[in-house]
Amino acid sequence: MQVDQTELLERCQQGDELAWEVLVRQHQGRICAIAYGYVGQQDEALDLAQDIFVKVYQRLHTCTDAEKFLAWLIRIARNACVDHLRRRKARPPRQDIPAAEMVNLRHGGPTPEDNLIRSSRQRLVHRALQKLSEINREIIVLKDIQGLPLEEISGLLDLPLGTVKSRSSRARLELAKAVTDLDGGAGAEAVS
């Protein structure tokens, strides 16, 4: 049974635990992917996603427009990720964090071989993302991975639309170069 987003949001705001569970299930993949895009390690991303949903729950009463819920949710997720990275820089870990292998967040796929190829490409692109400047990585995550329109990204990052457009193009070029450098030229099609 598909629940209307407005009704679901209202039920969550009234304390309906089942509605909250439905809301979390609807958006947990996206939130985990956003967190993973920022922190680059699956376990850390899952912990961060839980923290994000706690913040969402605590602030649920402030979201009054169900049509803008997704943008509101992504803004909270993005801010939590940026705050997390700032805290991590202020208190670096005792040892370097190894680059996590990309694990499919979705289940299934055409064949195990296809999954292996896709997983290998995803790991390559993720490693390349970590080589980008912070702003370029953020634009790639928000635009190309999360599919947000440039206007929303402009508002989220508090940058002029023209700047976001030009940075988006430069970010894709920087990502393609990073993929090529990491893969010796063989994986450039992974970002095409």
Name given to the CATH architecture of the largest domain: Orthogonal Bundle
N-to-C span: 37 Å
The count of helical stretches stands at: 8
Any idea how many domains? Answer: 2
What is the general shape? globular
Order of helices and strands: HHHHHHHH
Number of strands: 0
| CATH class wording of the largest domain | Mainly Alpha
Uncertain parts: 187-192
CA radius of gyration = 18 Å
For the sheet with most strands, the description reads: none
Helices and strands in order, then pairings?
Blueprint (H helix, E strand, L loop, with lengths): L4 H9 L3 H23 L2 H18 L9 H22 L21 H20 L2 H12 L4 H8 L3 H23 L9
What does this structure look like?
The protein starts with a helix and ends in a 9-residue tail after the last helix. It has helices spanning 5-13, 17-39, 42-59, 69-90, 112-131, 134-145, 150-157, 161-183. It has eight helices and no strands. The longest helix has 23 residues, at 17-39. The chain folds into two domains: 5-90, Rna Polymerase Sigma Factor, Chain: A (Orthogonal Bundle); 112-191, Winged helix-like DNA-binding domain superfamily/Winged helix DNA-binding domain (Arc Repressor Mutant, subunit A), CATH 1.10.10.10.
Offer a few descriptive terms.
2 domains; disordered C terminus
Quick summary:
The protein is an all-alpha fold and 192 residues long. Helices cover 70% and strands 0% of the residues.
